[in-house]
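User: Second chain of the day. Same drill as before.
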Amino acid sequence: MKHILTRGFFLAFFLYWGGRLLYAAPNDGVRAASPVAAVADVHRGALMWQEYACRRYTTADGLPSVLNERVLQDSKGYIWICGTSGLSRFDGFSFKTFLEGSFANLYSIGETESGAVYAISDRFIYVYDSAEDTLKRVSRFSKTGMTVFSSTLLPSGYCISYEKADDGDQSFCKITDNGIEKLFTHPDFREYPDANRAWYARAKNLLYLPLTNGISVFDGAEKVAFHEGINARCFVEYREALWAITGEAMYRLNADGNFELKVELNIGDNNEYMLARAGTDGTLLFSDYSTIYRYDGRKIEKIFSANIIKDFIVDRENNIWAVTYEGVYNLFDLQFRNLFLADRTDNVRSVVYDSLHNRVIMGTLNGKLLEVCEGKYAELPCPPNPLTPENRFMPNGAVIGDAVYMPSLGGFVKIRGGLCSWVSFPDRTYPFQFTVPFSDGAVLTGGYNYLLISTLNGKIVKTYSPENLKNRIYSRPCIDRHNRIWIGGGNGLNMIEGDSIEAFFDDSLAYCRVMTIDDDCNVWFASENRLYKISDADITKKYVFDNQITNIHFTKSGILVVSTLDKIHIFNKSLES
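Assistant: Same format as last time:
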């Protein structure tokens, strides 16, 4: 089975591009439970800062406008987005928009009991016709209008409406094919602020109406309770209870029918127009007008900020879809974070995971060695390069034994624990592009036009020159089960076995920039957009992608992950599509 990563999948590998590093986010540390939960920003340190990775969709991706209002996942799994310029449906790959080119001014969407998606403007109700794949206008209403914000958290088919002749006369209503049907009203509705979000527990027929001085509870048209002093901005079903969220605290409705203060908040003054959703992973997410927060039962963390968050949902795969006035964002189940170097003139060149010490080591273009361990960042003290005052790290470092080896100018740096030392080749000051474990006490290293086998202390055992290879090396070499060295380059492949060098030069194999090895010591490589497998000496083309391949990786469970310039593709072991 193949998946294209437009949604969130856990990946135990690293991708980097320029000064930004995308990595699979580890679990955050937790603090002891406390009635007061401090809000933690995604860390911004002196060396680097991070934010959760997301995909932003705009008009360039098929949306008719960046000004969007609501988002819905229907019962079939489609994502629907409505806004000023129409209703868009996302199928995981592309958008299709209805009413495009008109000032549709859609501000609400939902799904009928029969599974039909509907959209509402200030004048019309539209229903999606799946048989004709079109959006049809089914009713027009002129006397009533929906209050946009206050209806956001109500179930599909319900809203708070007002009589257009008298803006203060609000009612709890049901949306039908013929328009908006009033269910009941009450004097409390006149005190209901539009910024607060009502909640309807349909199974119990209880409506929770959040007022500035408390929460009114209605059973049908009868007011049955009032919880004084709680200015609830929104509600959410979380851990089998109803929670009310204010700008200062979170309350849980207990079995005795009373709201209990559970968490004090300190999120600032921008706490109007709050929304809350329950994640599928046991977390609670809520937002103010510009930030989405996550609560895991112990701490609160800022996870996303944008200019005017109008709505957000958590889909079935726990991806967060945020609708803003800058477009639509997908936060990929919060499994990825982008790391940014604080030094904007620098960028990450090499990334190595040191499993022995559970840390990530990064080498940068400006010659810094950075360590990420348990969410904390540190710069490792590296002695000056003995061959040149200029230093920069190159791609494709490696773990060999109990140390990390990072290629640089004229050699590589050995990192054991927190100590760094140089392994240099004095007659070679050019950039070393890779280090690869070769055999006990040996390492394969080199650059574009040269290949060395050396000891880990810098003694050269064997040298391969450009005249030997007749190929410019582009990929990190791999060593198969027969101890043969495979090299990818501009002309194709070289295979080194003992003292012999065999060339596989062909246009279909040329420009091999990516090479890796699986658990069975089969070599995999990419030539432009073509994926190949080498088993023994047989070279087999396995897959052709739509774009250039930039990385190949096998997870510990044998899942194949291939990144191209525009997507991440996930395969099972048999490479079925």
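The chain has one helix and 57 strands.

User: Great, on to the next one.
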